[in-house]
């Protein structure tokens, strides 16, 4: 019997004339992907006994959607012979100024049982897949009315430290009996084999598998892709390094991320320029040791590899920023959210001359003002603003309540804000109609608009859009707590704390103009020339009696982000 698919196909990086397909197979083989007259082939490469291939098809028609087939050693394995799904389509991007981008974060794979729905909420990726399936069938297999140009999954695609029962069962069977206290935790993945199974379980739900096979998808990691609170601080790094299983854990987590998520983010030219990829595909044997060495180096030396990447499409620019692995945190008095290389790269990419500049990171750039002030205060305290004795309690608070978003890295926040203000004011070419920050992580969604804190004027709308979670809603008590920190009183208290620790005023002022919302949701950013709209879609609440569980018209929140003739920002001040 020939090779078969273990995971995929996943439709990944796409341009106006190219599309990338990623697969994992159960044995070494030759992979061929074909759509119309276009064909791409690749020989699988092997890492820790697992086999992968990345195929990029070129010369495709612009803004096209072609059914495609996957062959392994001449045998067709996709579409599956008995599939009841519409054909998977190979999508390319349009050359005009219109696009629809779906985005979200924080996805826990569930069984979709009533018990799981009560705990985690409805799985929005699965619900959206069902919506597209219905539309594609009505259109005889063509793209539907809500098909996105791109799907952005911006953090926590897998939860390596919050496992479902099926994954816990796999760990027990894979590891056998527990021998000592130095063994890995029973409820967290550690080895590459365990990460490979985690991804398999996350992406083999039939509806989600089909969705990822037919919508171009770009991804970013967040902490749970490796471990909760990953790289929160230098203290955290030193404490976790003393754990016997940490080195294999972070090595496996980063190596798996590079294979399962990051390679598909890149163009063929970018993969060819990646020295690790060049070595792996040229290796006739198992490249596990080579990938492990790279992954450990990326962890130990954050400036050694750039995980951030960009994509220009139409007249728009998308920047996907690493806010986890590249952090520089060893010195608490000079913490940086971004690596030195990423800081320079982002500054160079933030320019005018585009209709919309989109900066996506797993963590929101503009947090609710009260949280922003609290995190900025905590960073200053941990650096010694309130004296040496306050640093320990400050660090404990930082780790206990996750005070580690952009505002907890003021140097990076100010640098990025400065770059954006220069682009929005026209110092770097014709200002974009909007600068849009996309974020996730926080398990609630909102819209915030910003303006310069001083007298300077900008010609671009500066807007934060957060969509989180797709499937992992907050328990009720935490929702009330998060609602409370968006109120004006808590913002005033936070601002006073920040001033007491010597935190300089922010170069931006903002407030939440919409939200917070605590449903599982998926957001859609619609670009049409210099106009941009956003909407968040959620199924009706459980027990509401409104519509079917997957009725996307039952709970939609729509907002205009920018107009064709956007002028000087008049956003009210932060509250």
TrEMBL record:
SUPFAM superfamilies, per database record: Metallo-dependent phosphatases
Transmembrane segments: none
Ranges of residues in domain DUF7800: 3-88
Pfam families documented for this protein: DUF7800, PhoD
Annotated InterPro entries: DUF7800, Metallo-depent_PP-like, PhoD-like_MPP, PhoD-like_sf
Superkingdom assignment: Bacteria
Protein name: PhoD-like phosphatase
Native organism: Haloactinospora alba
Lineage: Bacteria, Bacillati, Actinomycetota, Actinomycetes, Streptosporangiales
